[in-house]
Here is the input.
Amino acid sequence: MALSPPISEIAQLKDRPELAALLGWNINVVQAVKLDRDELTITLEPSSIREACAILRDDSTVTCNLFSDLTCVDWYPSEPRFDIAYHLLSTQRKARVRLKARLPGDEPRIESVVSVYPAANFFEREVFDLFGVRFEGHPYLRRIMMPEDWEGHPLRKDYPVEGYR
Amino acid sequence: MSTPTYTASMEQGQDNTMILNMGPQHPSTHGVLRLVLEIDGESVLRIMPDIGYLHTGIEKTYEAKFYQQCVPLADRMDYLSPFTNELGYVLAVEKLLGIEAPPRAQWIRVLMTELTRINSHLVWLGTHALDIGAMSVFLYCFREREDILRLYEMLAGQRMFDSYFRVGGLAMEVPLGFFDRVKQFADRFPERIDEYENLLTGNPIWTRRTKGVAHISAEDALAIGLTGPALRASGVDFDLRRDMPYSGYEKFQFKVPVSNDGDVFARYILRVEELRESNKIVQQCLAGMPEGPIKADAPKIVLPEREKMKTQMEALIYHFKIVTEGFVVPAGEVYVAVESPRGELGFYVVSDGTAKPYRVHVRAPSLANLQALPKLCEGRLIADVVAAIGSIDIVLGDVDR
Here is the structure.
């Protein structure tokens, strides 16, 4: 099972229903695509994330009805610093898709998807708590893992593993 | 924690309501879950889970370890199902590397994962029944759990955090007589399930405490992110083992029990059915266990056999390099999900082409399932909250990580 090189041409992947639905909605929001190790990643314009999620959930050819996961990757010190990764699952098609939004290191903020997927609630709070990314429109954006009066965001790469002593 | 977390939002409550703080040391919250309830008499108007008391920063620790050093960390998240966590992690790293464990290793992994499911469901059944007032079930369940823990001990030397799976295979061959012991257990286990069912399923007190309690519809369950038995109890027929098979699950015949009732009783009966199905998978594993190696043929990733290390120079060099420098994983990212006893356990592993993971995120099924608690409890009685917490089967080590 050797690794095959990733495919990143939109033209080669436009048969995938997730990508087709997003391109059909607005061709400008898709910044990049990648099919690597059988996993499809679609990088989106950050401001479009909520509407893109709504389309992937409601489109009858995509039917991503289960919000699996949301997390963040800190690429400090390069820019754009934060990758927000959304994992959606369709229980009918038994297929996953990863959406990605890249945010700057300075005041990272993105629209919340809780109104589309209520399941995103705790995940967005976790990313807010541990990375300091603000989710606009979240119903209750407070720290979830760390104490309320904690300073800093522990999962950022510039935060030492052993903490500040 | 200096200030109560939910004061601001709770102030909107009416004058005739009361704020009740449940946990984090409450025995029925299965660990350190704190619930803030707004109640009017006995009925619950609002409920807010407050978590983080067990947050140990495992995801941060991952970033400082070599890939092979992360397996024991995976054990320690969901401490009731260590093998499932290990399986999710090693499958993710194997996918990043583009290697696959040999068939025998995959079958032993399935065997241990299903024993783990039985173990975890037994703890759940015992404590859930204890919460609702059926004391004796706990003693029966822990009798069989003890048998499984002894099997773990025989296999890997430890009763809980076994660290037995490795990237590319298993740590070692199973000890002599292990499969016979598993067979003895699996042969008598169905009778034991009947014993639990005799105590509970037809019991009028049990059915009154659970039937129609904490109902959730299929649409709500999907929207809130419920997975695993709790989702199937609401009528969504989805099981990762059958629908998106991994580690050779497509070779096994088993039923995925589904119910349309969506209440605490449905979730109970479904997990009991899963005990029977898991036992069948264990039997199939034992019957068809393939012979062969238990480690993939990837000398730069898998530690060599002890014998080879003592006799061959290359093996010694590889051993030294893996232990001191780790192995390099090609850059990329994968999301691998396995069906844990609680639901979809996902590992999102990002590699930057070095020997340490750049980022590991765990999609904890307990965290997502916990979000459903307000939906399950609001408008019901305080006593039902206890039944509802038990029925979504959360492990706080998994919630907080």
Notes: Chain B touches chain A through 47 residues (CB under 8 Å).
